[in-house]
Amino acid sequence: MKGYAVMLAVDYARLEKMVILHDVPKIEALYKAIECEYVEIVRCKNLPEGYRLVIDEEGKLKGSTLNVLGSYLYGTPEHGDTIVGNAVIMKETEGPEGADLEWLTKDEADFIESLMEKLWRPAVRAMNNYYDRLNGENVPETTKTPEIPYDCT
Prior knowledge:
Mean pLDDT is 83; it is low at 142-153. The chain has four helices and six strands; from the N terminus they run E-E-H-E-E-H-H-E-E-H. Strands 1, 2, 3, 4, 5 and 6 form a six-stranded antiparallel β-sheet that branches. The protein has helices spanning 26-34, 68-74, 76-79, 106-134, and strands at 2-8, 15-21, 39-43, 51-56, 87-95, 98-102. It is globular, with a radius of gyration of 16 Å. Helix 2 packs across helix 4 (106-134). By secondary structure, the chain is of the alpha+beta class.
């Protein structure tokens, strides 16, 4: 049986639909994909409800590269905290012991991959404007993330 996830790689614009065999432990697959030893699960204001971004918990300490799309999804232009390094999108479910991460179905992975392709240009534009403002350039504050109607059905 297969599971899926969508990886947002830092080498600009590389989206990768990961196909995971269920006999591989989730945590091992995440460590390998994200290239880290510790993961952190973050909620993103610009992802549909129930989807989470899994990131390298120590990415900033290691000086990892900015993840433009991940930072945009996280809302960096509004609060200033960035996402660095590779990131993986999965879904969060409620189980008997609380929240848990699950692999995506193929349809969910296709949906997320398509959504990320649509968000790439707005993400780059918003992040460029954000950094221009940080550098003191007179850029209109147009980085508010547009409300995107999600249809996850």
